[in-house]
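User:
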Amino acid sequence: MRLPKLPYWSQALPWLRSGATIVDAGCYFSQEIRYLVFNEGVPATQLYRFDLQPAFSDISYKLSRDWGKLHANMLSGDVLANQSAPEGQNFTALHGKIDIVHAASLLHFWGWDDMIAATKRLVSLTRKQSGSMIIGKQMSTLDAGGYAMPTGGVNYRHNVESMERFWR
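Assistant: Predicted structure:
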């Protein structure tokens, strides 16, 4: 599990235990959500997860053998899709309702411009209050920039300077 290793985890966990909401963006098989429910005792009702591929949810239940035990809210959709498009509508329901966004190994899937657009969508999910946060980790390199993917497209890998520029 990545969550306990994150720098702000010592602040995030007590907040979650007191009722804060979290969304695991690009959750894949929902390992982090399972960790929160089954290891940390965080109620599933305040946990959200989403991925582009809805089939990952069914596969994760089969792999984890916890069908009927994990009741976290599962959404599918494209974080880059227009809010009025079917694949972008699920995010509208979470707009301004999330305290913590967990985005690990997600943002580097895109080039710079799409990464900015995806991050703006993730930020729009957070409550407009002090303490709302986006946590996670991303792929990095010493030489920041776009890297060609073997399957096509380009992903952006950060270094310290580009990450600082990204969040300004």
